[in-house]
Amino acid sequence: MSSTIRGPHLPALLRLASQAMTEQLTDWIAASGFTGVQPAHSAVIQPLWQFPEGARITSLARASRITKQSMSTLIADLEAGGYVERVEDPDDARATRVRLTARGRAYGKAVRSFALRVEADWAHRIGAQRVEELRATLELLRTKVFLAEEE
């Protein structure tokens, strides 16, 4: 890898892409009719989508790479808005799980449709193969680097 890279380095490009996506998501949320939800709440909604039976706060925080305190604050916001609920953990009566409500699942479906439209737009702009390569590369980073850091 050359040290004479012109333009932003990879971390800056990832940050810029994330910021652009957050701006689009903010605009979509404002027009969507879903109130009381912000882009930061994706840290709760996205992992819960993978666990319909719910998950503990510590698991959600770990999955989203944020502190338990930050996750608890986001969950409280979403609980107040009717997007998530706390339920008994069937594996441990002392613990609770957080799960999506019907409203949370409706939002999850809608935001996933939004994400697919963004991906389609990117595929139109830069080519479907490049978008798939980007997805594969980011997934590889997620499994080989980001998840490996947790071990």
Describe what this molecule looks like in 3D:
The protein is mainly alpha-helical and 151 residues long. The protein has one domain: Arc Repressor Mutant, subunit A. 67% of the residues lie in helices and 10% in strands. Strands 1-2 form a two-stranded antiparallel ribbon.
Helical run tally: 6
- On the 0 to 100 scale, the average pLDDT is 92
Helix content: 55-70%
Q: SSE string, helix = H, strand = E?
A: HHHHEEHH
Described by strand count, sense and barrel closure, the largest sheet is:
2 strands, antiparallel
CATH topology: Arc Repressor Mutant, subunit A
First and last CA, distance: 27 Å
Specify the CATH homologous superfamily.
Winged helix-like DNA-binding domain superfamily/Winged helix DNA-binding domain
CATH architectural label: Orthogonal Bundle
Find the count of extended strands (DSSP E, 2+ residues): 2
Q: Which class best fits the helix and strand makeup?
A: mainly alpha
Rg is 17 Å
Q: What is the CATH level 1 assignment? A: Mainly Alpha
Which parts are unreliable, with pLDDT below 50 for 5 consecutive residues or more?
Answer: none
**β-strand amount:** 5-15%
Number of domains: 1
Secondary structure layout plus pairing:
Elements: H1 10-32, H2 42-50, H3 57-64, H4 68-80, E1 84-89, E2 92-100, H5 102-126, H6 128-150
Antiparallel strand pairs: 1-2
